[in-house]
Design a protein that fits this description.
homodimer; about 220 residues; mainly alpha; Arc Repressor Mutant, subunit A; Tetracycline Repressor, domain 2; 2 domains; about 75% helix; DNA-binding
DNA sequence: GTCTATATTATGATAGAC
DNA sequence: GTCTATCATAATATAGAC
């Protein structure tokens, strides 16, 4: 690790071209094949760059994975931020419903994200610990706060630990997209279709909080 | 593939010792590390047998995986069969609730099963197709029949395609156990605890079908 | 920064003795 | 049936030229 210590941390404005392409290809590969199944060779090929560059920029597969995951979590924060701070959402119930719908749309659009989470959350490992401590926990705290308020206000059963609701909501919203290919073969339904995404959001919303009001915000 | 063609298909009553141990170790390894992450060497070591025996009995990693999966599905069928044919369950609602609870207990007890499904359902592959066509579809048909009847009887919203309910139920019930290690680190809650399992079953049951009646069958 | 080797492992599979 | 080699391959990582 002689070189690329300072460079890897912060980059100038215009040396990012190939680095970016590697990152994008890595996110695709890791989410499609998992950490073990993905190969640095394939990532380099799909990014159209030389294998050595991965080493130069990221100092190895493990670090490349971390960088790709950081990228994925930036995207999710960007997707949820507008809803979380939307001033037009007056009551808590409307906001909860909006967050759920925004979340469903996000996981539907970026199943890579779901894949990464399902892959790494399943066993104890340095990657899992890093993921939880650096990225999952803030997200979890936000979701739990939202769900806890719903419990306090009687919109969700109060006698059940919020942990359950969290995994129920995340599982219920994301599995159909995580298993998108299976779903297509098993049922003929394509979870990437716009109409299917909206139906799924409605289904989860209904089961969790009751049927949506007439004028659901699109 | 000179030898082991007839033997691998059917075995005598008492030559199964090492073959069984390989199978058990394989199920553990594949579910813990995924197909790519698991190695035949590790499986052999954990089974306490020689590496060559895997080749002898299963003719390769792919076939070993299939055999391990068959095993897992036998277990799930055994777990659900008693509930599905329990004559003491008079009305449909009680049966639906029992099936959900039995399912939760199964995935909680055998998270390996969930791991396998989540691993292989995520992308199109020969393994995925084999899994869906041979094992998932019968299970899916059963679950859908149950959910469709619930819709017809007004116990579930009728205006939502049953596909959504299927993935919602499976996702809601299984994610906390699939991400068991993550859950422990993130929340301090251990999903393997008896009380946690029952709480989770109750939570899903409540959200889907409404609060359980007083005398819930244990 | 980017590329071409190449070193080093580790893995799935095979051959063949016992 | 079970074991001990060993092969062939593929993957990560490194060294060093340009």
């Amino acid at each position: 690790m002689p070189r690329a210590t300072a460079q890897a941390a912060s980059h100038g404005p215009r040396d990012d071209d190939k680095r970016e392409r590697i990152l994008a290809a890595a996110l695709e590969a890791f989410s499609a094949q998992g950490f073990d199944g993905a190969t640095t060779r394939e990532i380099a090929t799909r990014a159209g760059v030389n294998l050595g560059l991965i080493q130069y920029y990221f100092e190895g597969k493990e670090n490349l994975w971390r960088a790709a995951v950081e990228r994925a979590f930036e995207q999710i924060r960007e997707s949820l931020a507008p809803v979380l701070s939307d001033p037009s959402l007056t009551d808590e119930d409307a906001r909860t419903r909006s967050v759920i719908r925004a979340w469903v749309r996000f996981v539907a659009t970026r199943p890579e994200f779901v894949h990464l989470m399902h892959d790494e959350g399943r066993r104890d490992s340095p990657r899992m610990r890093w993921l939880v401590d650096n990225h999952v926990r803030p997200l979890y705290d936000g979701i739990c706060g939202m769900l806890t308020r719903a419990q306090e206000q009687g919109r969700l059963p109060a006698d059940i630990d919020v942990v359950h609701f969290h995994y129920i909501v995340v599982g219920a919203t994301s599995l159909i997209f995580h298993q998108g290919e299976e779903c297509k073969r098993l049922t003929g339904v394509n979870p990437a279709d716009e109409a299917v995404i909206e139906q799924h959001a409605t289904a989860v919303e209904t089961l969790l909080l009751g049927p949506p009001s007439k004028e659901t915000p699109r």
